[in-house]
Specification:
- The structure is a single chain.
- By secondary structure, the chain is α/β, with parallel strands linked by helices.
- It folds into three domains: 294 residues, Glycoside hydrolase, family 3, N-terminal domain (TIM Barrel, Alpha-Beta Barrel); 254 residues, Glycoside hydrolase family 3 C-terminal domain (Rossmann fold); 141 residues, Immunoglobulin-like, CATH 2.60.40.
- The chain has 21 helices and 27 strands.
- The strands form eight sheets. Strands 12-17-16-15-13-14 form a six-stranded mixed sheet, sandwiched between helices.
- A hairpin with a 2-residue loop joins strand 9 and strand 10.
- Helix 1 packs across helix 3, helix 4 crosses helix 13 and helix 5 packs across helix 13.
- The longest helix is centred in the N-terminal third of the chain and has 20 residues.
- The relative contact order is 0.13.
- The chain binds beta-D-glucopyranose.
- The site of beta-D-glucopyranose has 7 residues, from loops.
- One of its GO terms (biological process) is cellulose catabolic process.
Length: 893
């Protein structure tokens, strides 16, 4: 425990927070938006850097309070000789003017940021509460996880323990400076990777590199389907395979830490980075995060669960406070991170935003209490790039500063850590045991995945990918294109199919209409960070994108498919979305018109077509609605294919009888054209399901994008909808969506029967008393690691049922289990608590099996700080979507 003089602590807190405020990088977006077309990567980097540098220096000396935040008059004196910038400081602080709330514009955060010294007792390395149980909770390493969908809960506790012991030994001989060096990046652009930890004695350092869908910033890599497309498959085996292949490519390039997966929840339909994540439901997102991490780390690369937490929109992402109640935090936003911890994730990236008035990266509650204490996380927390705001964040639970410099790319800006952290230990502000803890967490994570054994050297330079001296151009793609193609197809959602318009049956004439059908006019990588919507949409934009080795468009794939059919088909195309007459002329009299449209979004440092990261509205892009209407006017077999980063409003044309079919094809990576062709021609029977709700009107969504704000403002984003994210809001308020969460059609039909539920008894009695207490309505204990405990998460009930394929083609049904809590619980009407992909031959049947744990049947008790079974009757439904329930049952509690 750190003991710190209270006055010094308060002064430091205010001062450092003030400097942090001054470092606001909101100008980043505007500066970079100017360079969104045609600029080279290094140009953009320097543009970011200049912008941040000028922002920091301008506001570091600005003493004014906007009347919104309460920080004022800060002066710093930097000691240049030692490189210490903030150890000796003078500050004067004046209170915010009373009644300072803005009279117009968005709601603003009035609580000022503070950095409390941890009030939570965190021991260095919480250990799991139970010992391994063979056949249930096997002791294993993240390098050998149980297979996808397994009921085994892997116990990584012993592996962590061994890794920590080795780390402790390694760092025991290190000086304070050496230990600090493990925690502080070398500075943006100073090293081969987007983040770099320097070599220290026998420890070779770390390369940290984006992105969640593959290695960014280098060549000869695969651009995998986005997280959103992977989640839309609802297939754990595919999600695991994607994670494994991604992990292999990172390792092949010599990256120790892959900066993904991303698991923010798509609270806002327009949220710019939703496509990087796994959709708008915590359970689905949690399963996808779990499988992805197990896959990545099995390959030997460290995964990073990001962005922790409540980072749900791009607008003002560095200047917004997400205000979230504790129950919502636990049940909704924290869940995917808990699943990540259970998957043995080694690192977590804290986000740019504030949570309840405190920056995520110095938020004692979310870092020390939620993540390290309650979930028992034994790895390390790194900052998002530039999300570090103070030296004292070390005592709030942060472990690694990324990329290390205060102003990205400006070594003269110094570092919050590095020499400052050393000085804070030397002057008694921070206990050295905390530094030991940080270094040990980092080094243990490296040992956990055997990265000390023949790990490849970094063979690329993310900042200068064409520099011959530092780029080995090593090909790590293997045959990963196969999994890309498969997931692209399996993640495509068939939304409408009348008159059996699909699959296509060797049509004699096919018209391909729309820009999204063809290649980009600039080639696959013609826009920096994929910041352009031109041609087939394979990825969204920003740091989550990748450099395509190639990008198959529908135009290429469909032509190849037509030739394979050799049935005398003809293909014509028209790729201009604005020349409606030209498009109509092409579609006229064709057997089928395939209209390809899209909607794009990305990270807020780039603006594309007026969309500053977040989408500015929910309509499809590039005149799509008019294009579809025009084609449907001349062709009675118009089929719409949308590649989209999320939901869009389809009301203008969805009921048009000439629009005979609609496929929502996600954002599928480099095999986009092949994946959709497989679905259109019936080589793959679609089984994808929507990982979010598609509303009829934007205002039907329960949470909206917050815009506006002045340069110094901290926007207030109140999560007033609480537990009612996405479909839960529609259900709770009886709002009809256009297509509900979990919806998706097939080329066949399925019926359900034979529901059975039974308790699972187990031979070991290790947790009998905990289980009995839970059954009696007591909250789970508030011990370290308690929310990840075996007894809470092991299967407690088994639900079985039969799915019959009532059609003539084989297909995969995604059976979903929705729990209906007793009314005493105050839960939404239906919550997803299980799903399974069930492959059924034509006219055949197969059994579905889904388990429920005690955790699944609990709510977070804020007062008791534990998971508790509410009283009353629990019912559940099994069905094909969140509104298509086929079987109903009661949990025998
Ligand atoms: C993004 C992170 C990314 C990091 C490094 C940040 O702007 O939010 O997701 O990993 O940059 O590129």
């Amino acid at each position: 425990m750190v003991v710190l003089n209270a006055r010094l602590s308060a002064l430091c807190a205010l001062l450092l927070a003030a400097i942090a405020d001054a470092q606001s990088t909101s100008e980043l977006s505007s500066a970079v938006s100017a360079s969104s077309s045609g600029a080279s990567a290094s140009e953009v980097v320097s543009s970011i850097v200049t912008s941040v540098a000028s922002s920091a220096s301008a506001s570091a000396s600005s003493a004014t309070s906007s009347g919104v935040t309460s920080v004022a008059s800060v002066s710093t004196s930097s000691s240049t000789s030692s490189g210490v910038t903030s150890a000796s400081v003078s500050a004067s602080v004046s209170a915010a003017p009373s009644g300072s709330a803005a009279t117009t514009g968005p709601p603003l955060e009035s609580t000022h940021i503070t950095i409390p010294i941890s009030k939570y007792p965190f021991s260095s390395f919480p250990v799991p509460s139970a010992s391994p149980v063979p056949g249930v909770y096997p002791s294993t390493s993240p390098k050998s996880p149980p297979p996808p969908g397994s009921r085994l809960i892997p116990d990584f506790g012993p592996a962590w323990k061994a890794a920590h012991a080795r780390a402790k030994r390694l760092i025991s001989g290190w000086s304070l400076e050496q230990k600090v060096a493990t925690t502080t990046g070398t500075g943006y652009g100073n090293g081969l990777c987007v983040g770099n930890i320097p070599p220290i004695a026998d420890f070779p350092g770390l390369c940290l590199q984006d992105a969640p869908l593959g290695v960014r910033g280098t060549d000869f890599v695969t651009v995998f389907p986005t997280g959103l497309s992977a989640a839309a498959t609802w297939q754990r085996a595919l999600i695991r395979a994607r994670g494994l292949a991604i992990g292999q490519e990172f390792k092949g390039k010599g990256v120790e830490v892959a900066l993904g997966p991303m698991m923010n929840l798509g609270r806002i339909a327009q949220g710019g980075r939703n496509w990087e994540g796994f959709g708008a439901d915590p359970f689905l997102s949690g399963e996808a995060a779990y499988e992805t991490i197990l896959g990545m780390q099995a390959a030997g690369v460290q995964a990073c669960a990001k962005h922790y937490i409540n980072d749900e929109q791009e607008h003002f992402r560095m200047q917004e406070s997400s205000n979230v109640d504790d129950r919502t935090e636990h049940e909704i936003y924290f869940h995917p991170f808990l699943r990540s911890v259970q998957a043995g994730v080694t690192s977590v990236m804290c986000s740019y935003n504030l949570i309840n008035g405190t920056y995520a990266c110095e938020n004692d509650y979310v870092l020390n209490e939620l993540l390290k204490n309650q979930a028992g996380f034994q790895g390390y927390v790194m900052t998002d790039w530039g999300a570090h705001h103070s030296t004292m964040s070390a005592v709030a639970g942060m472990d690694m500063s990324m990329p290390g410099d205060i102003v990205l790319g400006d070594p003269s800006s110094g570092s919050w850590w590095g020499a400052n952290l050393t000085a804070f230990v030397q002057n008694g502000s921070i206990a050295e045991s905390r530094i030991d803890d940080m270094a040990e967490r980092i080094v243990a994570s490296w040992y956990l995945l055997d990265q000390d054994q023949n790990y490849p050297e970094v063979s690329f330079n993310a900042f200068f990918p064409n520099d011959p001296a530092t780029n080995g151009h090593i090909d790590v793609q293997s045959d990963h294109y196969k999994i890309v193609r498969e997931i692209g197809a399996a993640g495509s959602v068939l939304l409408k199919n009348t008159n059996s318009a699909l699959p296509l049956k060797k049509p004699r004439s096919v018209a391909l209409i729309g820009n999204d059908a063809g290649p980009s006019s600039r080639g696959p990588n013609g826009y920096t960070y994929a910041g352009g919507d031109d041609g087939i949409l394979g990825v969204g934009w920003g740091s989550g994108s990748g450099l395509f080795p190639y990008l198959i468009s529908p135009l290429e794939a469909i032509q190849a498919r037509v030739r394979k059919d050799s049935s005398g088909s003809q293909v014509s195309w028209f790729l201009n979305n604005w020349d409606l007459a030209g498009a109509q002329a092409t579609a006229l009299d064709q057997d089928v018109a395939l209209v390809f449209v899209n909607a794009d979004s990305g990270e807020g440092f780039l603006t594309v077509d007026g969309n500053e990261g977040d989408r500015k509205n929910l309509t499809l892009w590039q005149n799509a609605d008019n294009l579809i209407a025009a084609i449907a006017e001349v062709n009675r077999n118009t089929i719409v294919i949308a590649h989209s980063v999320g939901p869009a409003i389809v009301e203008p044309w969805i009921d048009n009888p000439n629009v005979t079919a609609v496929v929502w094809a996600g954002v599928p990576g480099q095999e986009a054209g092949n994946s959709i062709t497989d679905v259109l021609y019936g080589d793959v029977n679609p089984s994808g399901r929507l990982p979010y709700t598609m509303a009829k009107r934007p205002e039907d969504y329960g949470a909206q994008l917050i815009t506006g704000g002045e340069v110094d403002d901290i926007l207030r984003i109140d999560y007033t909808e609480g537990l009612n994210i996405d479909y839960r809001h529609f259900d709770a308020n009886n709002i009809d969506p256009r297509f509900e969460f979990g919806f998706g059609l097939s080329y066949t039909t399925f019926s359900y029967a034979g529901l059975h539920i039974s308790p699972i008894t187990h031979a070991d009695s290790t947790s009998a008393s905990l289980e009995a207490a839970w059954a009696a309505g007591k909250a789970s204990p508030a011990d370290e690691g308690a929310v990840a405990a075996l007894w809470l998460h092991r299967p407690a009930f088994e639900v079985t049922f039969t799915v019959k394929n009532t059609g003539a083609v084989a297909g995969t049904e995604i059976a979903q289990l929705y729990l209906h809590f007793p009314s005493s619980a105050g839960e939404p009407p239906s919550v997803l608590r299980g799903f399974e992909d069930i492959q059924v031959p034509a006219h055949g049947s197969a059994q579905g099996k889904i388990t429920l744990s005690r955790y699944d049947l609990s709510v977070w008790d804020v007062d008791a700080k534990g998971w508790r079974k509410p009283s009353g009757e629990f019912t559940f439904s099994i069905g094909a979507s969140s509104r298509d329930f086929r079987l109903k049952g009661t949990v025998p509690l």
